[in-house]
Amino acid sequence: MVDDTKLITKIIIRELQTTLKELALDKSARRLLLQLLHPNYSRYLNTDGLASLNSTVPSLSSKNESEIKSKKLSRDEESSKEAAKSDIPEENLDEESTKEVATTDSDMEATESGKSDTPEENLNSAEGGKKDPSLRRRELLVNSGLAENLIDVCIENAEELLTSNFGKEVIFEVAKGGSDGILHPTLDEKLNNLHEAIAELAAKPKSDESEEEHVLENFHSSRTIRKLILDCPAFASTLWKKSLEGKCQLWAQGHSSKVVSAFLESSDSEVRKVAKEELQPLVDDGTLKIPETKQSANEN
């Protein structure tokens, strides 16, 4: 909410950067990161949380109507005193007073509508500053170096974040590039490295003897990877080439089937095209199940 993003970076962001993994895995702390990556999203903030972000801060709010009226009366009194001391003929005093009142009424209307011609230092918005929110967000997330460090943490701890009930949302938003593509194109190279790291995990051989679940079979990670296929064509392309091409029959059952089927459910024609030759036979023989409505919608 504060416009001085350099000060916030120095005092707050720098401290957060030393504990990004812990923040991403924490039920409450992750919301700080998610609010920057995907602001005001009801999936990450409940109704009360969203309401608190939109609450008016009294010390930052525009003056209320009673204060404005009080100010108007004071200005009228001052105007009358000044007029009495001047050489303005008495018959013109009413005209001068009317002009003053009109100006004040105009100020009140402007205040109520959020617009005013008053000096800049007298303007206080409920949002807490004059800077454009998208610019403030970019300065805090990208320019501060926070996003770059967060991508590094996601690369180093990809498996732990993907399989975590809380961390999965952070790595999903990061890998996608944030809402409105805020991490593109500045951090494209880093994001490609993250896509590669996730694809390498998915490329590990399936083993019934391993005590750890494969990321394509784990409940949390399989759904997160599926969402990335649907929302991020660049990731889908990397995953297909490095992990799934020629191996889809192996993953066509269980939780992993949701990952495989996502290629045919994608709204991106290139993503569907690259996988259709291998996946369509699995659909035709009943090995791979895809909701008919989703498949027909994409084909149309």
Automatic annotation (TrEMBL):
Residues 64-88 have a biased composition (Basic and acidic residues). Residues 124-229 form the CPL domain. The keyword Ribonucleoprotein does not apply. Residues 55-135 are annotated as: Disordered. GO terms for cellular component: nucleolus. GO terms for molecular function: mRNA binding. It comes from the Eukaryota. GO terms for biological process: regulation of translation. Keywords: RNA-binding. This is CPL domain-containing protein.
